Amino acid sequence: MEPTTVPASFEKVVEGAFQALQITDKPVGGTDVMTYKERHEIELEKLAMEVEELPTVIDKRTRQLNQDQLTKLVRTGSRLDDLRIDTFRPITNLKKEWDRYIGTTKDAGLRGRIAAMEQAVKKNIEAYDQAEERKRQEEIRKQEEKNTERRKQLLARKMSFDGTTFTFEQFTAQAEQVYAATDENFAKVLVKLDALVAAKVQREADELAEKKRREAEQEAEAARLKAENERLEAERKKLDDERAEFNRQKEEREAKERGDHLFEVRSSYLRTIGAIALPDANGQLIFGLGLAQITEGDMRTASEEYWLRKTEWFRRAKEESEERKAVAASIDAIDTEAAAPIPDGVYLEDIEGVTTPAPVEEVPFTEEPPAPEVLTEQDEQGRAADEESEAMRVSNELPLDEFSQEPLTVESAVYQALGEASVCWDPRPTGIFDSTRCKAVGDKLMETLKQLAIIHN
Length: 457
Known about the structure:
single chain, mainly alpha, elongated
């Protein structure tokens, strides 16, 4: 295939084609000295004027005029397009021939043959580059291993690492400097760091020893203070106990002195009215007069109200005792006068001048209830004792002493009889009544009664 002939100057060919291009059917006169652009402008203005001069379509004629102008314009455009194609057809053919020979892809024509040669050279270069990359990656791997090992050594020596800087107290090192340092310089860094670590360890050991020493001192001081506090607490408790014991003894002493005083005053009064004191089984005195009696303990502790009731009972008992004495004296006088023998069958009432005293009618003693008042704790205790005595009386079915509010037993009746007999003297003897001997007489009588099986334990 022969190559298409192409003018030497493509620009001139284009210029000549544009000069030969005619837009209108008839050439415009006087355009020889114009350029093709000036001439084409005139021709286009002429067509534009023809279009402007077209009448408005109002009938077939005016429509035909417009249609003819349209046909002319379309034909002019088609002619220009055909001219364009015809003008560039040799160039288009030339391009196709060149594309086929040279090649439009890297695998076709001359380009394909050159691309094959390029590929061989590229493979050679790539092989070298790959080998160099492998070397570089190996160097990177070795450097990373080295960096990792150095990082481990520094961290093992208690250095902290924030990703960019290694720090141990005041000593710092940038990671880039650590990784880039030679083995000799890195070894020097380790020696310096080991010295700092050893100094810190020694300092911490000293601080720990000092801390333990202070703690031991504090514990010893705490133990001493604890022992001192315990000693002071023991002394305080001892003082409190001694004070409490002193107060208790003082209260007991004051109570005893108060009781002794009350007993002295109250016993003196009872003796003046004829009451007899006898010891009980526990050695405590019991003052009795007739059926009235009161214990030594009650005399020491009884409230004034309770004591006044008791003294009233003793006064009544004394009056009854004196009445009984008067009756007994009258009987003794009668017995003396009637000492002469009385004939059989003759009664005392038949003897002239002898009168039998009328039997004394026993008037029961009725105590008026005391005026209501607030009772003391002692009164409450006395009332509780009275209630307990009442329960004992009911359970034992024994009579109660009207004045003592205690159960009347054989033993108490014996001692009361002895006490009552002791006041049968007229005139009354003076001196000290030996209550011990009186109690011994009562004990002996009780023993005799037990032997006679009169009472049962």
